[in-house]
Amino acid sequence: MKIMPLDMVSKTLYTLQNNDMLNAAAVDVFAMDTPRTIVEYKYRGKNAGREMAFREYTGTFIAEFSAALFAFLTGKIATKLFKPEIQTNSSSWATNKTLDTLNEIYQKSDKTPKGFIENTFDSLSGIKGKETAIFKNINPEEKKKITETITNLITENKDKNQTKEILNNVQDEIIKLLGADSNIFIKGEKSEVTTNLTHALRDITDVSKNVFFKQGVDTKQALNKLKTLNNMKIAFAIPLSMTIAITNQMINRKITKKKTGIDNFVGENNYEKHVEEKMQKDKQKGLWWKKLLSAGIFLLMLTKTMNLKSPSDLINKLEFTGPATSGNAIKTVYGTLILGRIFASKDTTELRETNIRDYLGFLSWLVLGGFFAKGVAQGFDKNMDKLFNITGTSKGIKHWLFETSIKSQKEIIAQGGNVGKNLRHLNIAQISGILYSTVMLGILLPKLNIYLTRKRKDDNDNYTPTFKGISLDTFIKKTKK
What is the sign of the dihedral through the CA atoms of 33, 39, 41 and 44? Predict the structure, then answer.
C-alpha cells in the first residue's frame, strides 16, 4: 500500500526539503535576488539596480548550479578517459563512504543478489522522532516483499522510468513501515553512512547492478575507479566554481565602470550625479586591512556553520551525493562569492554594506531560516514529539542547529495520529522559514544598508574628475606624451 498522496503545497515543500540545490535556489531567487533588485532600482536608480541584478542572479547560478554542472561533466569525461577498460556507471553518485559501507556488507554476505540485499536492508535504520527505527525489526512478510522487489530490480532489465517508479513505491512502503525518511543510516562492519531514503535506495540499486553483480566487472577495480572519480569531481568542480565565484563581483564592477565611466560604489550618495560629472572617488588608505579583517571573520563563521572537525572532514562534506549541489558545497561556493564581494569593495561604505548584507544574509539564508522554521514548529509541538526528528542529546544552539530537524511530509503521514493537523503545522513552519528569509534578506537588509549610507556624511570623501575612465590629470599627462 502506498503512502497517502500529498497535496500540491505539501509535495512542493517535500521536494524543496529533500533537494538542497532546489531549496537554496528557490529561496535565493524569490527571497533575495528579486526583492533586492527591486529595492535597488526603486531607491538608488538603474545602475545600482542593474549591478544588484547581475550580482544576485549570476550568484544564484554560481552557488547553486555551477558545481553540480561541473561535477556532472567531470564524471562523464573522466569515466571515458580514466581507466576506460574498467566499466563503471558515469552517472553514479554513491559517495566514497557509501561505497566502503556497501562493500563491507557485500564481503560479509553470500555474494548473491538476494543475500546481499537482505544483509543491506538488515543493516538499515532511521530516525523516527526521538527513536531509532530498525528495518530488521519490521514485519517479516513486509520485509521480504521489499527485499525481493529490490533483488528483482537489480537482476532484471528495467528502463529508467520503470526503475524510478519501483524505487518510489519501495520508498513509500519503507516510510510507512519504518516511519523514517530524512535521516537514514546504513551500517557496515567498520563504516556507517548517513543519508536520506531516496539516496540510500538509489545507491544500493546502482552499486548492486553496476558493480557487485554486473558480469565481467572486477569489484575491487570498479570500486577504486568510482572513488577516484568522486575525488576528481571535488578536485575539478569545486575549484572551478570557486574561481568563477571569487571573480564575479569584480567583473560586475568592470561592467558598471564601462557603462558609467567611473569606478565608484553604485550605492554611494549622489552616485548618479557623480556619473554625470565623471567624478571618481579617490582610493582610501587602510582599506585592504579592513577587507582582510572582514574576510577572516567570515571564514571563521563559515567553518563554524559547516561544523568542520578536521581538514579531511571538509573533503567528506564536499562530496557530491547526487546531480544537485549539496548543502556544504553550496556554503563553500557561496562563501567564496562573499569573499569576492569583500575584496571587490571600492571603499569602506561598500565594504560595510557587503558585510551587513552578506554576513547576515549567509546566516539568515543557510542557518537562521531553518532555525526560525524550527521555532515555529516547536510553537505547535512543545514536546517535539510530532514534527521533529532528533539525532543527538546536546543542549542549546548546537542542538538546535545540528541535532534537530523537522520531519518530512511523508514521515508525518507515516506516523499516523492527527495527520491533517500535523501536516498543516509542518507546512506552516516551512513556509514561515521562507517568509522570514524573504523579509530579512530581500527587504530589511537592503533598506537598512540604504538608510545607513544616506545617514553617513560624505564631507571627508575626495573625488577626482575623470575622462574616459581615468583621472583627468592622468589623461592630460598621457596626451602630452
Answer: negative
What distance separates the 2 farthest-apart alpha carbons in the chain? 93
Same domain, 292 and 337: yes
DSSP secondary structure letters along 12-34: HHHHHHT-HHHHHHHHIIIIIIH
Q: Are residues 274 and 399 in the same domain?
A: yes
DSSP secondary structure string for all residues of 220-258: HHHHHHHHHHHHHHHHHHHHHHHHHHHHHHHHHHHHHHH
Across the strands, what pairs with 186? Answer: 124, 193
Does 67 reside within a domain?
yes
At 35-78, the pLDDT tens digits run 999 999 999 999 999 999 999 999 999 988 899 899 999 999 99
Q: Cell numbers at residue 282, please?
A: 579617490
For 113-158, the DSSP string reads HHHHHHHHHHTEEEEETTEEEEGGGS-HHHHHHHHHHHHHHHHS--
The last residue of a domain, from among 188, 217, 246: 217
How much is the pTM? 0.86
Question: Residues in the chain, how many?
Answer: 481
Secondary structure, 3-state, 35-56: HHHHHHHHHHCHHHHHHHHHHH
Q: Cβ–Cβ contacts within 10 Å for residue 292, how many?
A: 12
Segment 95-125, tens digit of pLDDT: 999 999 999 999 999 999 999 999 999 999 9
307: left (phi over 0), alpha (psi -120 to 50) or beta: left
Are 182 and 298 within one domain? no
DSSP letter assigned to residue 355: H
Containing structural domain, residue 190? 98-217
Q: Is residue 173 part of a domain?
A: yes
Looking at the structure, do residues 207 and 295 belong to the same domain, yes or no? no
